[in-house]
Amino acid sequence: MKVAVAGCCHGALDKMYETLELLQRRHNVRPDLLLCCGDFQAVRNEADLRCMAVPAKYRHMQTFYRYYSGEKKAPVLTVFIGGNHEASNHLQELPYGGWVAPNIYYLGYAGVVRFRGVRIGGISGIFKSHDYRKGHFECPPYNQQTIRSAYHVRNIEVFKLKQLKRPIDIFMSHDWPRSIYHYGNKKQLLKMKSFFRQEVESNTLGSPAASELLQHLKPTYWFSAHLHVKFAAFMQHETNSKEELPKATKFLALDKCLPHRDFLQIIDVEHDPNAGDSLEYDAEWIAVLKATNSLVNVTQSSWNMPEKNGLHAKWDYSVTEEAIKEVLEELNHDLKIPCNFTLTAACYDPSKPQKNMEPVHTINPQTTEFCAQFGLTDINDRIQQAKEEGSGRGECEEEEEEEMDSTGSAEEPSEYNTDNSGLSSFNPDEIMLDEDGGDEDLSTCSVDPSPDHPPEFSTSFSDIRIMPDSMAVSSDDAMDSNNEELEKAGGSKQVEEKSPTERSLKRIGGDENGNSGVKKIKRRNQAIYAAEDEED
């Protein structure tokens, strides 16, 4: 089947779907599935904009709300992960994944699903070491710290994914796995993004957690975004035994969704011709969620996942074939994910702007149903219970720590000692965010004054490439003479056509600034919407 993969969407759904329609019209290529690698921006209303970690001038409604309201419907099944510029309050409603609109599915903090027999996994957010060992404690209304920490990857999600034994076909992360650039054309990468050099040479660019998952899962494909540059790599994995067949991962990072950007990739993926066309649960993943349910943590306490180090009674939470069989029996062997999308917030009305709309902490019926079906902890319900008891960082958190004594320990050192989710150097192609809030104003909400008249993207397209069956990528700069071939590896065919139940809750208390002596850390973010600024 044909799978389209997109980089950072930034809410430009119309742009993506128009491009796919153009592809079909001009080249008779119709993808069966669309994957988006984060910064999807599922913004429903003005309150959602206030929960998106970008400077106020970049808070534009874009077009997702039309798909949320039912005015439009995604023409192709769309599956996405979260990035670092999201309506975090919306995605937080679906920690285990769910529908954000008809035909648009979010994978959750981490998740695995199946489509036509193809196993697709992903992890949302970006890596920051100072939040990595915390629980998912954030909830709206966010403050200057939690609006950012809400999208930081947590060790429990990585731990869950590492319990998987069955092969993964496709995996998505927002930030790149650390070290992946050593398996592609570094010279060409640094030619396009010279400010990456320091981090590439010191091997600190990207996420160490994603790198750990890459080495463990060894998926056939790994797709990322975040750095706004297209980059292909080919990683041959080491085998653990002579009997194990060698595995390799084809890695591709996608550019952001803007006119004249090569932001879409089409790949052919082997699938089960006898499988249905519905998105399905993955039985092993559900079994892993059930097995690790006791590890759920909704506090700011830092603790490591269970390890075989003498401190934990249990450290292996991988599941048996019997456990997987039990999941199948619970579902009567019907793995189809129910189409149970529900509106949980008012939809943006261009004729009646609500600039003072406040975000609220919402428990989504999809999550309630999912947790009840599989006996899982509803993370948002747990957070709400803690807040109702006036816990913050008080009694409830102490009780949680007592519950975790047999599984986790706050005394253990972190797996990762550095905080390098990406570059410390200046990247002129991304939004600039001050870690301590800087120019971020959560009390104001800037809305695009004319959301019904988005830029006419369809006037010029150079956005799609079709990937060949294999990507021949050098493993070191010794192959830099093959730059031309490597560019072709990213895509052999390009479209060059030109054509025209809620309530507001107080945030959990606590000071998150004690994790680092550096008070102001600049992310390598600026001008994601540079093209829009030029138009303005």
From TrEMBL:
Domain Lariat debranching enzyme C-terminal, first and last residues per copy: 235-380
Residue ranges that the Swiss-Prot or TrEMBL entry lists as coiled coil: none
Gene Ontology biological process: mRNA splicing, via spliceosome
Domain of life: Eukaryota
Biased composition (Polar residues): 415-427
Similarity comment text for this entry: Belongs to the lariat debranching enzyme family.
Protein name: DBR1 enzyme
